[in-house]
Amino acid sequence: MQALYTDESYNSVHQQLSRRLILLGVILAVLLGVFIYAMIVRTEWLAMVALSLAGCFAVFYSDLFCAPLLRYGRLVRSALSGRSHEKELEFVRVDPDPSVVDGVTRRCITFLGDPDKHGSREMTLYWDAELPLPQWTPGETVSILYNGRSIIGFQPAAPSSRP
Fold first, then answer.
1. For the CA atoms of the chain, what is the radius of gyration?
2. Residue 61 counted as domain residue
3. CATH number of the domain encompassing residue 106
4. Which of 71, 76, 119, 140 could lock 103 by a disulfide, CB 3.0 to 4.6 Å apart?
């Protein structure tokens, strides 16, 4: 089974997030230092500007640069330590447009599996958009390892496994 996520990928995401949080802390410390200085010398306008900049920067920086890595790290951690299921499914198609699911950009892949209680055989799973798509042909049977709805591993199915 070819695993899509490893401990190294989680460590890499964690290191990137740590660097971004350190940068956020340094810039906030400088702005708060300016705020404290302005309070000591009683320059009200400088104190208001420094505190406003610190608040705006903290919100925008964390939302634009830290939150996506935090969500992606959560996906990788769940893939490594969460409950996983393995199933042999028949590949149907890949949606051309990526979508954002749980804050992470993914591609929808449709498979045909066992019928559910409503009679539908289609099963939609999500592929990480940061990873290259495998070259599956429609109708090919693939053994998929998934967590929730996220594909975390795959391998070509044995030839005699499905009729």
1. 23
2. yes
3. 2.40.50
4. 71
Q: How many residues does the chain have?
A: 163
Same domain, 48 and 114: no
Q: Hey, what long-range contacts does 16-20 have (CB within 8 A, 24 or more apart)?
A: 16/69, 17/66, 17/69, 17/70, 17/73, 20/65, 20/66, 20/69
Q: Is the pLDDT of residue 40 over 90?
A: yes
**Would you state the structure tokens that stand for residue 108, as one six-digit string?**
């929808």
Give the span between the Cα atoms of 98 and 130, in whole angstroms: 10
pLDDT tens digits, one per residue of 92-138? 999 989 999 999 999 999 999 877 777 778 899 999 999 999 989 99
pTM recorded for the entire structure: 0.84
**Parent domain of 57:** 2-81
**CA neighbours closer than 13 Å in the CB half-sphere of residue 124:** 7
Please give the full DSSP string across 28-59, using - where no structure is assigned: HHHHHHHHHHHHHTT-HHHHHHHHHHHHHHHH
